[in-house]
Design a protein that fits this description.
The protein is mainly alpha-helical. Helix content is 75%, strand content 0%.
Length: 71
């Protein structure tokens, strides 16, 4: 993917997430929180954040792979 296309695809993927998952992604990647800090903020544990993040990242890889050129 070209950089602009990749940015558009990533933004579209994030916008399509459940609001709770959007919040998770934005707090971790845009705002730079650690998983531990986000867990404390949300009143949960780091493992729960880690599991949710792994799920979201797997969905993102699948979604963005659709836009990648065939090798």
């Amino acid at each position: 993917l070209e950089r602009d296309e990749a940015n558009e695809a990533t933004s579209a993927f994030i916008d399509g997430l459940d609001p709770a998952d959007q919040y998770l992604v934005r707090r971790l990647y845009r705002d730079g929180l650690t998983q531990t800090a986000l867990a404390q903020e949300l009143g949960t544990n780091k493992m729960a954040i880690s599991r949710r993040l792994a799920k979201v990242l797997a969905m993102g890889r699948d979604a963005l792979a659709v836009h990648a050129p065939a090798a």
